[in-house]
Design goal:
Elements: H1 2-27, H2 49-69
Length: 72
């Protein structure tokens, strides 16, 4: 008898939890109108090739200066 009550209580509890989960998921079903425009123009500095060339040149110069600085 005790096992039957325990199983019945667990099933009732699970039914209530699934019902609340279902209600909660329907509450989140609001459509959002998000307008994302990624093509605003050429304001992106890293898309320009000269920036990469200058950055690579500076990196190479710093690397050479650090590696040659230990020798005399």
């Amino acid at each position: 008898m005790k096992k039957i009550l325990t199983v019945s209580w667990e099933r009732t509890f699970m039914f209530i939890m699934f019902a609340f989960t279902s209600i909660h998921s329907f509450a989140q079903d609001k459509g959002l109108d998000i307008d994302v425009d990624i093509n605003k123009g050429d304001d992106n500095l890293f898309a320009k090739p000269w920036v990469w060339i200058v950055g690579a040149a500076v990196f190479i110069l710093l690397l050479v200066a650090i590696l040659r600085g230990g020798r005399k």
